[in-house]
Amino acid sequence: MPRLVLLFFLLTGLLSGCADNSELASPESGDELVVVTRNTPTTYYFEGDRASGFDYALIRQFAREHNLSLRIKVAFSLPEVFDMIASGQAHLAAAGLSQSAERDARFLASEPYLEQQPLVVYKSGAQRPKTLRDLVDRDIVIVAGSVHAQVLMRLREDYPELSWREVHAADSLELMQLITEEKAELAVVDSIEFSVQQPLFPRVVAAMEIGTPTPIVWYLPQSTTATQFLETVNGFITDAGESGFIAQLRRQHFGRYENVSRVGSLTFQRKIQSDLPAWRTLLETVADEYQMDWRLLAAIAYQESHWNPTAHSRTGVEGMMMLTRATASEMGVADRTDAGQSLRGGARFFKNLLRRLPSDIEEPHRTSMALAAYNIGLGHLEDARVLTERAGGNPHFWQDVRTHLPKLQNPDFFPITKFGFAEGQTAVTYVDNIRHYEGMLSLQNLPHSRISPPIVLDDLLPEYLQKTHSPIL
Fold first, then answer.
1. Is the pLDDT of residue 295 over 60?
2. What is the pTM of this model?
3. How far is 265 from 197, CA to CA, in rounded Å?
4. Where are the domains of the chain?
5. How many CB atoms within 10 Å of residue 325?
6. Which residues are catalytic?
7. For 166-200, how does the pLDDT look when each residue is reduced to its tens digit (9 = 90+)?
8. What's the CA gap between 279 and 295, in Å, rounded?
9. Rounded to the nearest 10 degrees, what angle do helices 378-390 and 365-376 cross at?
10. Is the predicted pLDDT of residue 80 greater than 70, yes or no?
11. CB-based contacts of 15: which residues, under 8 Å, 6+ apart?
Protein backbone atom coordinates (compact mmCIF):
# COMPACT_ATOMS: atom_id res chain seq x y z
CA MET A 1 0.00 0.00 0.00
CA PRO A 2 2.70 2.61 0.78
CA ARG A 3 4.23 2.00 -2.67
CA LEU A 4 0.90 2.67 -4.38
CA VAL A 5 0.35 5.81 -2.34
CA LEU A 6 3.82 7.04 -3.32
CA LEU A 7 3.09 6.22 -6.97
CA PHE A 8 -0.19 8.11 -6.73
CA PHE A 9 1.53 11.29 -5.54
CA LEU A 10 4.19 10.91 -8.21
CA LEU A 11 1.58 10.38 -10.91
CA THR A 12 -0.63 13.25 -9.85
CA GLY A 13 2.39 15.54 -9.65
CA LEU A 14 3.44 14.62 -13.18
CA LEU A 15 -0.07 15.01 -14.53
CA SER A 16 -0.59 18.35 -12.86
CA GLY A 17 2.70 19.54 -14.35
CA CYS A 18 1.59 18.46 -17.82
CA ALA A 19 -1.83 20.05 -17.46
CA ASP A 20 -0.56 23.43 -16.20
CA ASN A 21 -2.08 25.93 -18.59
CA SER A 22 -1.30 28.99 -16.45
CA GLU A 23 -0.42 32.12 -18.40
CA LEU A 24 3.24 33.10 -18.47
CA ALA A 25 3.83 36.64 -17.28
CA SER A 26 5.61 38.92 -19.73
CA PRO A 27 9.34 38.68 -19.04
CA GLU A 28 11.18 41.70 -17.72
CA SER A 29 14.90 42.44 -17.56
CA GLY A 30 16.68 39.56 -15.87
CA ASP A 31 13.81 37.12 -16.42
CA GLU A 32 13.70 33.99 -18.55
CA LEU A 33 12.24 34.16 -22.06
CA VAL A 34 10.64 30.86 -23.08
CA VAL A 35 10.41 30.36 -26.85
CA VAL A 36 8.96 27.46 -28.82
CA THR A 37 10.51 26.70 -32.20
CA ARG A 38 11.07 23.82 -34.63
CA ASN A 39 14.17 21.73 -35.21
CA THR A 40 14.72 22.66 -38.87
CA PRO A 41 17.60 24.07 -40.98
CA THR A 42 15.81 27.41 -41.31
CA THR A 43 14.83 27.89 -37.68
CA TYR A 44 16.89 26.02 -35.05
CA TYR A 45 19.43 23.23 -35.33
CA PHE A 46 22.90 22.35 -34.09
CA GLU A 47 26.20 22.67 -35.96
CA GLY A 48 28.25 20.31 -33.82
CA ASP A 49 27.53 21.56 -30.31
CA ARG A 50 26.63 25.10 -31.42
CA ALA A 51 23.02 26.16 -31.84
CA SER A 52 22.25 27.82 -35.17
CA GLY A 53 19.35 28.83 -37.41
CA PHE A 54 17.82 32.12 -38.56
CA ASP A 55 15.01 32.30 -36.00
CA TYR A 56 17.32 31.21 -33.21
CA ALA A 57 19.81 33.96 -34.09
CA LEU A 58 17.04 36.57 -34.22
CA ILE A 59 15.41 35.57 -30.95
CA ARG A 60 18.82 35.32 -29.26
CA GLN A 61 19.53 38.92 -30.26
CA PHE A 62 16.14 39.98 -28.90
CA ALA A 63 16.92 38.27 -25.58
CA ARG A 64 20.34 39.92 -25.39
CA GLU A 65 19.00 43.40 -26.07
CA HIS A 66 16.39 43.01 -23.33
CA ASN A 67 18.64 41.25 -20.80
CA LEU A 68 16.63 38.03 -20.85
CA SER A 69 17.93 34.50 -20.42
CA LEU A 70 16.72 32.33 -23.29
CA ARG A 71 15.13 28.90 -22.95
CA ILE A 72 14.25 27.06 -26.15
CA LYS A 73 11.47 24.48 -26.34
CA VAL A 74 11.24 22.32 -29.45
CA ALA A 75 7.94 21.35 -31.06
CA PHE A 76 7.81 18.42 -33.43
CA SER A 77 5.01 19.59 -35.71
CA LEU A 78 3.28 22.84 -36.60
CA PRO A 79 0.12 21.98 -34.62
CA GLU A 80 2.29 21.35 -31.57
CA VAL A 81 3.88 24.80 -31.93
CA PHE A 82 0.50 26.45 -31.56
CA ASP A 83 -0.68 24.04 -28.86
CA MET A 84 2.33 25.02 -26.76
CA ILE A 85 1.56 28.73 -27.11
CA ALA A 86 -2.12 28.23 -26.40
CA SER A 87 -1.39 26.17 -23.28
CA GLY A 88 0.94 28.79 -21.82
CA GLN A 89 4.15 26.82 -22.25
CA ALA A 90 6.00 29.63 -24.05
CA HIS A 91 5.98 33.41 -24.30
CA LEU A 92 6.12 33.28 -28.09
CA ALA A 93 6.74 31.06 -31.09
CA ALA A 94 9.69 31.89 -33.36
CA ALA A 95 9.53 29.10 -35.90
CA GLY A 96 9.38 30.47 -39.45
CA LEU A 97 5.59 30.75 -39.22
CA SER A 98 3.59 32.08 -42.16
CA GLN A 99 0.91 34.54 -41.19
CA SER A 100 -2.68 33.62 -41.97
CA ALA A 101 -6.14 34.88 -41.05
CA GLU A 102 -6.90 31.59 -39.28
CA ARG A 103 -3.80 31.89 -37.09
CA ASP A 104 -4.40 35.59 -36.45
CA ALA A 105 -7.86 34.72 -35.09
CA ARG A 106 -6.28 32.59 -32.34
CA PHE A 107 -2.98 34.33 -31.62
CA LEU A 108 -1.21 37.69 -31.66
CA ALA A 109 1.05 38.19 -34.66
CA SER A 110 4.20 40.28 -34.57
CA GLU A 111 5.33 42.60 -37.31
CA PRO A 112 6.53 40.54 -40.30
CA TYR A 113 10.27 40.08 -40.57
CA LEU A 114 10.52 37.94 -43.74
CA GLU A 115 8.33 36.80 -46.62
CA GLN A 116 8.11 33.45 -48.37
CA GLN A 117 6.37 32.03 -51.44
CA PRO A 118 4.65 28.61 -51.65
CA LEU A 119 6.27 26.45 -54.34
CA VAL A 120 5.32 23.20 -56.02
CA VAL A 121 8.40 20.98 -56.31
CA TYR A 122 9.03 17.70 -58.10
CA LYS A 123 11.90 15.32 -58.90
CA SER A 124 13.99 16.28 -61.91
CA GLY A 125 13.23 13.94 -64.79
CA ALA A 126 9.65 13.29 -63.68
CA GLN A 127 6.60 14.89 -65.25
CA ARG A 128 6.69 18.60 -64.48
CA PRO A 129 3.40 20.38 -63.75
CA LYS A 130 3.24 23.54 -65.85
CA THR A 131 -0.24 24.80 -64.99
CA LEU A 132 -2.55 24.61 -61.99
CA ARG A 133 -4.69 22.08 -63.86
CA ASP A 134 -1.63 19.81 -64.01
CA LEU A 135 -1.86 19.40 -60.21
CA VAL A 136 -5.07 17.42 -60.52
CA ASP A 137 -4.69 13.62 -60.21
CA ARG A 138 -1.15 13.97 -58.85
CA ASP A 139 0.09 12.64 -55.51
CA ILE A 140 0.77 15.89 -53.61
CA VAL A 141 2.15 16.08 -50.05
CA ILE A 142 2.20 19.02 -47.64
CA VAL A 143 3.24 19.51 -44.02
CA ALA A 144 0.28 18.98 -41.66
CA GLY A 145 -0.88 22.22 -40.09
CA SER A 146 0.79 24.43 -42.70
CA VAL A 147 -0.90 27.29 -44.53
CA HIS A 148 -0.48 25.28 -47.72
CA ALA A 149 -3.69 23.41 -46.95
CA GLN A 150 -5.54 26.71 -47.14
CA VAL A 151 -3.80 27.59 -50.42
CA LEU A 152 -4.85 24.26 -51.94
CA MET A 153 -8.40 24.58 -50.61
CA ARG A 154 -8.75 27.87 -52.46
CA LEU A 155 -7.45 26.22 -55.64
CA ARG A 156 -9.94 23.39 -55.17
CA GLU A 157 -12.76 25.89 -55.78
CA ASP A 158 -11.64 25.97 -59.42
CA TYR A 159 -10.34 22.38 -59.55
CA PRO A 160 -12.71 20.25 -57.40
CA GLU A 161 -10.77 17.03 -58.05
CA LEU A 162 -7.58 18.43 -56.54
CA SER A 163 -6.38 16.33 -53.58
CA TRP A 164 -3.33 16.07 -51.32
CA ARG A 165 -1.85 14.24 -48.33
CA GLU A 166 -0.71 15.82 -45.06
CA VAL A 167 2.55 14.60 -43.53
CA HIS A 168 3.10 15.10 -39.81
CA ALA A 169 6.57 16.61 -39.77
CA ALA A 170 8.42 19.62 -38.38
CA ASP A 171 9.07 21.07 -41.83
CA SER A 172 9.51 20.17 -45.48
CA LEU A 173 12.66 18.05 -45.10
CA GLU A 174 10.54 14.93 -44.96
CA LEU A 175 8.61 16.06 -48.04
CA MET A 176 11.82 16.55 -50.01
CA GLN A 177 12.88 13.05 -48.96
CA LEU A 178 9.58 11.60 -50.16
CA ILE A 179 10.00 13.28 -53.53
CA THR A 180 13.59 12.06 -53.86
CA GLU A 181 12.57 8.49 -53.02
CA GLU A 182 9.59 8.76 -55.41
CA LYS A 183 7.12 8.09 -52.59
CA ALA A 184 5.24 11.21 -53.64
CA GLU A 185 5.04 13.04 -56.97
CA LEU A 186 4.76 16.65 -55.86
CA ALA A 187 5.15 18.66 -52.68
CA VAL A 188 4.19 22.17 -51.67
CA VAL A 189 6.98 23.86 -49.70
CA ASP A 190 7.97 27.39 -48.74
CA SER A 191 10.58 29.17 -50.84
CA ILE A 192 12.96 29.85 -47.94
CA GLU A 193 12.92 26.25 -46.72
CA PHE A 194 13.42 25.06 -50.30
CA SER A 195 16.41 27.32 -50.91
CA VAL A 196 18.16 26.02 -47.79
CA GLN A 197 17.22 22.37 -48.17
CA GLN A 198 17.66 21.86 -51.92
CA PRO A 199 21.43 21.22 -51.60
CA LEU A 200 20.52 18.16 -49.53
CA PHE A 201 18.13 16.99 -52.24
CA PRO A 202 19.60 18.38 -55.50
CA ARG A 203 17.28 16.28 -57.66
CA VAL A 204 14.25 18.13 -56.25
CA VAL A 205 13.49 21.25 -58.31
CA ALA A 206 10.80 23.92 -58.35
CA ALA A 207 7.98 23.64 -60.87
CA MET A 208 5.85 26.70 -60.16
CA GLU A 209 4.65 29.19 -57.59
CA ILE A 210 1.14 28.91 -56.20
CA GLY A 211 -0.85 31.29 -54.05
CA THR A 212 0.72 34.57 -52.98
CA PRO A 213 3.77 35.44 -50.87
CA THR A 214 3.05 35.22 -47.14
CA PRO A 215 4.64 37.25 -44.32
CA ILE A 216 6.62 35.39 -41.64
CA VAL A 217 5.89 36.43 -38.05
CA TRP A 218 6.33 35.46 -34.43
CA TYR A 219 3.12 34.44 -32.69
CA LEU A 220 2.14 35.19 -29.09
CA PRO A 221 -0.84 33.95 -27.04
CA GLN A 222 -3.89 36.18 -26.82
CA SER A 223 -3.69 37.63 -23.32
CA THR A 224 -3.34 40.95 -21.57
CA THR A 225 0.31 40.47 -20.68
CA ALA A 226 1.14 39.17 -24.16
CA THR A 227 -0.50 42.24 -25.74
CA GLN A 228 1.83 44.46 -23.73
CA PHE A 229 4.83 42.29 -24.56
CA LEU A 230 3.93 42.47 -28.26
CA GLU A 231 4.83 46.18 -28.29
CA THR A 232 8.35 45.30 -27.13
CA VAL A 233 8.62 42.53 -29.73
CA ASN A 234 7.43 44.77 -32.55
CA GLY A 235 9.83 47.52 -31.53
CA PHE A 236 12.73 45.08 -31.76
CA ILE A 237 11.66 43.70 -35.16
CA THR A 238 11.25 47.21 -36.58
CA ASP A 239 14.67 48.30 -35.32
CA ALA A 240 16.31 45.07 -36.51
CA GLY A 241 14.89 45.65 -39.97
CA GLU A 242 15.87 49.31 -40.18
CA SER A 243 19.41 48.67 -38.88
CA GLY A 244 20.04 45.96 -41.47
CA PHE A 245 20.42 43.22 -38.86
CA ILE A 246 17.65 41.07 -40.34
CA ALA A 247 19.09 41.50 -43.84
CA GLN A 248 22.49 40.43 -42.51
CA LEU A 249 21.00 37.32 -40.89
CA ARG A 250 19.14 36.52 -44.08
CA ARG A 251 22.33 36.65 -46.14
CA GLN A 252 24.14 34.56 -43.56
CA HIS A 253 21.50 31.84 -43.22
CA PHE A 254 19.56 31.89 -46.49
CA GLY A 255 21.95 33.43 -48.99
CA ARG A 256 22.32 31.41 -52.16
CA TYR A 257 25.91 31.06 -53.27
CA GLU A 258 25.62 32.33 -56.82
CA ASN A 259 28.76 30.55 -58.00
CA VAL A 260 27.57 27.11 -56.88
CA SER A 261 25.73 25.01 -59.45
CA ARG A 262 23.09 22.36 -58.86
CA VAL A 263 25.34 19.90 -60.70
CA GLY A 264 28.13 20.75 -58.29
CA SER A 265 25.83 20.09 -55.37
CA LEU A 266 24.76 16.77 -56.84
CA THR A 267 28.38 15.73 -57.40
CA PHE A 268 29.28 16.70 -53.84
CA GLN A 269 26.29 14.75 -52.54
CA ARG A 270 27.56 11.65 -54.33
CA LYS A 271 31.08 12.19 -52.99
CA ILE A 272 29.72 12.41 -49.45
CA GLN A 273 28.36 8.90 -49.88
CA SER A 274 31.23 7.37 -51.85
CA ASP A 275 34.46 9.08 -50.72
CA LEU A 276 33.92 10.86 -47.43
CA PRO A 277 33.56 7.74 -45.21
CA ALA A 278 37.18 6.79 -45.97
CA TRP A 279 38.46 10.20 -44.80
CA ARG A 280 36.02 11.27 -42.11
CA THR A 281 37.92 9.85 -39.12
CA LEU A 282 41.16 11.52 -40.23
CA LEU A 283 39.34 14.80 -40.92
CA GLU A 284 37.74 14.75 -37.48
CA THR A 285 41.07 13.93 -35.80
CA VAL A 286 42.98 16.73 -37.53
CA ALA A 287 40.17 19.24 -37.02
CA ASP A 288 40.10 18.41 -33.30
CA GLU A 289 43.88 18.92 -33.09
CA TYR A 290 43.54 22.39 -34.60
CA GLN A 291 40.25 23.30 -32.88
CA MET A 292 38.33 23.51 -36.15
CA ASP A 293 34.94 22.21 -37.17
CA TRP A 294 35.71 19.07 -39.19
CA ARG A 295 33.06 20.06 -41.71
CA LEU A 296 34.94 23.25 -42.55
CA LEU A 297 38.20 21.32 -42.95
CA ALA A 298 36.43 18.73 -45.11
CA ALA A 299 34.90 21.49 -47.27
CA ILE A 300 38.32 23.12 -47.83
CA ALA A 301 39.88 19.76 -48.72
CA TYR A 302 37.04 18.97 -51.14
CA GLN A 303 37.33 22.37 -52.83
CA GLU A 304 41.09 21.93 -53.14
CA SER A 305 41.35 18.31 -54.30
CA HIS A 306 37.95 16.55 -54.15
CA TRP A 307 39.52 14.56 -51.27
CA ASN A 308 42.25 13.19 -53.55
CA PRO A 309 45.58 12.92 -51.65
CA THR A 310 47.60 12.65 -54.88
CA ALA A 311 46.01 15.59 -56.67
CA HIS A 312 48.38 18.05 -58.35
CA SER A 313 48.20 20.97 -60.74
CA ARG A 314 50.36 22.63 -63.39
CA THR A 315 51.22 25.41 -60.94
CA GLY A 316 52.98 22.95 -58.63
CA VAL A 317 50.46 22.72 -55.79
CA GLU A 318 49.88 19.19 -54.59
CA GLY A 319 48.05 16.90 -52.18
CA MET A 320 44.74 16.84 -50.32
CA MET A 321 45.05 20.55 -49.39
CA MET A 322 46.96 21.49 -52.59
CA LEU A 323 49.88 23.12 -50.79
CA THR A 324 52.75 24.89 -52.56
CA ARG A 325 56.27 23.67 -51.84
CA ALA A 326 56.97 26.87 -49.91
CA THR A 327 53.85 26.61 -47.77
CA ALA A 328 54.43 22.91 -47.14
CA SER A 329 57.98 23.62 -45.99
CA GLU A 330 56.83 26.48 -43.77
CA MET A 331 54.14 24.27 -42.21
CA GLY A 332 56.52 21.34 -41.66
CA VAL A 333 55.01 19.06 -44.31
CA ALA A 334 57.60 16.63 -45.69
CA ASP A 335 55.29 14.67 -48.00
CA ARG A 336 52.46 16.66 -49.55
CA THR A 337 50.82 13.48 -50.89
CA ASP A 338 50.44 12.06 -47.38
CA ALA A 339 46.82 12.88 -46.50
CA GLY A 340 47.49 13.33 -42.80
CA GLN A 341 50.47 15.64 -43.34
CA SER A 342 48.61 17.63 -45.99
CA LEU A 343 45.51 18.11 -43.84
CA ARG A 344 47.60 19.15 -40.85
CA GLY A 345 49.64 21.55 -42.96
CA GLY A 346 46.54 23.08 -44.52
CA ALA A 347 44.78 23.37 -41.15
CA ARG A 348 47.86 25.02 -39.59
CA PHE A 349 48.11 27.46 -42.51
CA PHE A 350 44.41 28.35 -42.30
CA LYS A 351 44.59 28.90 -38.52
CA ASN A 352 47.64 31.16 -39.01
CA LEU A 353 45.67 33.26 -41.49
CA LEU A 354 42.73 33.39 -39.11
CA ARG A 355 44.97 34.71 -36.32
CA ARG A 356 46.66 37.30 -38.52
CA LEU A 357 43.43 39.03 -39.52
CA PRO A 358 42.57 42.24 -37.62
CA SER A 359 41.18 41.33 -34.21
CA ASP A 360 37.98 43.33 -34.68
CA ILE A 361 36.72 41.18 -37.59
CA GLU A 362 34.09 38.91 -36.06
CA GLU A 363 32.61 35.58 -37.12
CA PRO A 364 31.32 34.42 -39.54
CA HIS A 365 33.10 37.14 -41.56
CA ARG A 366 36.46 36.20 -40.07
CA THR A 367 36.39 32.64 -41.38
CA SER A 368 35.21 33.72 -44.84
CA MET A 369 38.02 36.26 -45.11
CA ALA A 370 40.61 33.73 -43.95
CA LEU A 371 39.36 31.38 -46.67
CA ALA A 372 39.78 34.13 -49.27
CA ALA A 373 43.31 34.73 -47.97
CA TYR A 374 44.03 30.98 -48.24
CA ASN A 375 43.26 31.34 -51.93
CA ILE A 376 44.85 34.68 -52.90
CA GLY A 377 46.92 35.73 -49.87
CA LEU A 378 46.48 38.18 -47.01
CA GLY A 379 47.99 41.07 -48.98
CA HIS A 380 45.42 40.89 -51.77
CA LEU A 381 42.63 40.47 -49.22
CA GLU A 382 43.82 43.64 -47.49
CA ASP A 383 43.77 45.45 -50.85
CA ALA A 384 40.12 44.37 -51.29
CA ARG A 385 39.30 45.59 -47.78
CA VAL A 386 40.82 48.98 -48.58
CA LEU A 387 38.81 49.20 -51.82
CA THR A 388 35.70 48.24 -49.85
CA GLU A 389 36.22 51.03 -47.32
CA ARG A 390 36.93 53.62 -50.01
CA ALA A 391 33.66 52.67 -51.73
CA GLY A 392 31.72 53.22 -48.50
CA GLY A 393 31.39 49.54 -47.57
CA ASN A 394 32.28 47.79 -44.35
CA PRO A 395 35.74 46.18 -44.54
CA HIS A 396 34.84 43.98 -41.56
CA PHE A 397 31.82 42.51 -43.36
CA TRP A 398 32.49 39.66 -45.79
CA GLN A 399 29.56 40.40 -48.10
CA ASP A 400 30.90 43.91 -48.68
CA VAL A 401 34.50 42.74 -49.23
CA ARG A 402 33.20 39.96 -51.48
CA THR A 403 31.63 42.57 -53.76
CA HIS A 404 34.95 44.40 -54.25
CA LEU A 405 37.32 41.43 -54.58
CA PRO A 406 36.78 41.14 -58.38
CA LYS A 407 38.21 44.68 -58.75
CA LEU A 408 41.65 43.21 -58.05
CA GLN A 409 41.72 41.87 -61.61
CA ASN A 410 40.65 45.20 -63.12
CA PRO A 411 43.67 47.28 -64.38
CA ASP A 412 41.84 50.48 -63.45
CA PHE A 413 42.37 49.65 -59.78
CA PHE A 414 46.01 48.49 -59.93
CA PRO A 415 47.42 51.96 -59.15
CA ILE A 416 45.55 52.17 -55.83
CA THR A 417 46.35 48.65 -54.61
CA LYS A 418 49.51 47.67 -52.82
CA PHE A 419 49.86 44.14 -54.18
CA GLY A 420 48.49 44.62 -57.70
CA PHE A 421 46.68 42.01 -59.78
CA ALA A 422 44.88 39.05 -58.18
CA GLU A 423 42.12 36.73 -59.38
CA GLY A 424 39.52 38.22 -57.08
CA GLN A 425 36.53 36.56 -58.72
CA THR A 426 38.21 33.18 -58.30
CA ALA A 427 38.58 33.89 -54.59
CA VAL A 428 34.89 34.77 -54.34
CA THR A 429 33.92 31.51 -56.03
CA TYR A 430 36.37 29.63 -53.81
CA VAL A 431 34.77 30.96 -50.60
CA ASP A 432 31.23 30.48 -51.94
CA ASN A 433 31.94 26.84 -52.73
CA ILE A 434 33.55 26.06 -49.37
CA ARG A 435 30.78 27.72 -47.40
CA HIS A 436 28.22 25.86 -49.51
CA TYR A 437 29.90 22.49 -48.96
CA GLU A 438 30.31 23.20 -45.25
CA GLY A 439 26.61 23.98 -45.01
CA MET A 440 25.69 20.78 -46.84
CA LEU A 441 27.79 18.75 -44.41
CA SER A 442 26.25 20.51 -41.42
CA LEU A 443 22.73 19.76 -42.63
CA GLN A 444 23.46 16.34 -44.09
CA ASN A 445 22.30 14.29 -41.11
CA LEU A 446 19.50 16.58 -39.97
CA PRO A 447 16.68 14.55 -41.58
CA HIS A 448 17.91 11.53 -39.61
CA SER A 449 19.03 13.25 -36.41
CA ARG A 450 16.14 15.40 -35.30
CA ILE A 451 16.07 16.37 -31.65
CA SER A 452 14.22 13.49 -29.99
CA PRO A 453 10.53 13.98 -29.18
CA PRO A 454 9.59 14.18 -25.50
CA ILE A 455 8.94 10.92 -23.66
CA VAL A 456 5.27 9.99 -23.55
CA LEU A 457 4.10 9.77 -19.94
CA ASP A 458 2.31 6.47 -20.50
CA ASP A 459 5.60 4.83 -21.47
CA LEU A 460 6.85 5.34 -17.92
CA LEU A 461 3.84 3.84 -16.14
CA PRO A 462 3.01 0.26 -15.21
CA GLU A 463 0.66 -1.37 -17.72
CA TYR A 464 -2.30 -1.42 -15.36
CA LEU A 465 -2.01 2.35 -14.81
CA GLN A 466 -2.09 2.95 -18.56
CA LYS A 467 -5.59 1.41 -18.70
CA THR A 468 -7.32 3.80 -16.34
CA HIS A 469 -7.64 7.53 -15.86
CA SER A 470 -8.39 7.14 -12.14
CA PRO A 471 -5.66 7.07 -9.49
CA ILE A 472 -5.25 3.74 -7.74
CA LEU A 473 -5.15 3.87 -3.95
1. yes
2. 0.67
3. 11
4. 2-114+216-254, 118-212, 262-446
5. 12
6. 304
7. 998 878 888 998 999 999 999 999 999 998 888 77
8. 12
9. 120
10. yes
11. 457
